[in-house]
Design brief:
By secondary structure, this protein is an alpha/beta fold. Helix content is 47%, strand content 11%. An 8-stranded mixed sheet has the order 3-2-1-4-5-6-7-8, sandwiched between helices. α3 links the parallel β2 and β3 (95-99). The protein starts with a helix and ends with a helix.
Length: 334
């Protein structure tokens, strides 16, 4: 007869093994970048390269011998990340830490000035950095923009436009815009891009922290930006790709998701949540795979083209571009 203790122990172990097999089976559908071409002589610029998906992306590029610029808000963390990678990859590509705060136009301009002085061309710009902050915090950028609008969209919009000459000199070159399928939940109100109404509702507890319209909207803005940029750069040799890393375990949502949410979500997370490395595969694919060269303007997830469910409108795309230009020039919210 089997002891009761053995049965009690066997049940959870069996469940964990079953979940492990399911996760293994599901991970086969998660894309993997199979391109391993040597990137020696090419310069990649990755925003937010010191942690999470950005760090894993940088590691993959360094392993392929690329020169990688770590454009990070915290220069100390960028240097630490580089030291850690160098220990793992003593013969990998060159790594350069540089300070960039996407919440400040002045910081972006200073960063670009240094880039233009030190680098004649940029082969690939990867707009990866992003923030998720509960709307109830009412956090703003240095210029007073709602934080998601200012960092996730306007910061990268301004940075990319300032680096177009460097990208064109490197043609065939690329811009990779990291978005999310959460853009399909967006509801952009051009009369309230700074979400004053939604923020006030959040402060009153009428909006759940996990349902962050600011983040979803910024991810849609990323897609619209990439689509418009692809059209503007057509026939220049600069391709533009948008991608979604998928549902990944990183510290991006640390301010919105509490510890008990992770416990409640544990079974789902074990089967569906990717690691940061797994999430970086599609970014690396868009940044390095020669098979998609020339297919500018497309959206990728799991290393294959993704057909978004969002009803994109060309007039909204043009309107967002024009307003973004106005906001950057005015340097203050409308």
């Amino acid at each position: 007869m089997v002891p009761a203790q053995a049965i009690y122990a066997a049940v959870p172990i069996s469940v964990l093994i079953a979940i492990g097999f399911i996760r293994k089976w599901r991970s086969r559908k998660w894309g993997k970048c199979l391109t391993d071409t040597c990137l020696r002589g090419k310069t990649y610029l990755v925003t937010g390269a010191n942690s999470g998906i950005g760090l894993e992306t940088a590691k993959a590029l360094v392993r392929r011998k690329a020169r990688v610029i770590f454009a990070c808000r915290d220069i100390a963390k960028a240097k630490q990340a580089i030291n850690d990678i160098r220990k793992e990859q003593p013969t990998g590509g060159e790594m350069i830490p540089m300070q960039l705060d996407l919440s400040s136009f002045e910081s972006i301009e200073s960063f670009v000035e240094v880039i233009k002085t030190g680098f004649h061309k940029i082969d690939v710009l990867i707009n990866n950095a992003g923030v998720v902050v509960p709307l109830s915090c009412d956090e703003k950028t240095k210029e007073g923009f709602e934080i998601h609008l200012g960092v996730n969209h306007l910061g990268h919009f301004y940075l990319t436009n300032l680096l177009l000459d460097q990208l064109k000199r490197a043609a065939p070159s690329r811009v990779v815009v990291v978005s999310s399928t959460l853009h399909e939940r967006a509801q952009i109100d051009f009369n309230d891009l700074n979400l004053r109404g939604e923020i006030e509702r959040a402060k009153k507890g009428q909006v759940k922290a996990r349902h962050n319209l600011g983040y979803s909207n910024s991810k849609l803005m990323n897609v619209y930006f990439a689509r418009a940029l692809a059209d503007k750069l057509r026939d220049t040799g600069v391709d533009v790709y948008t991608c979604c890393p998928g549902f990944c375990y990183t510290n991006l949502f640390r301010l919105s998701v509490k510890w008990y949410h992770y416990l409640l979500m544990l079974p789902v997370a074990l089967m569906y949540m990717k690691s940061a490395k797994q999430g970086s595969e599609t970014i690396v694919y868009c940044a390095t795979d020669y098979g998609i060269e020339g297919q500018t303007g497309k959206f990728y997830r799991d290393c294959v083209e993704y057909d978004s469910k969002f009803p994109f409108k060309k007039e909204e795309e043009i309107k967002l571009w024009n307003i973004s230009e106005e906001l950057v020039k005015a340097r203050k919210p409308l």
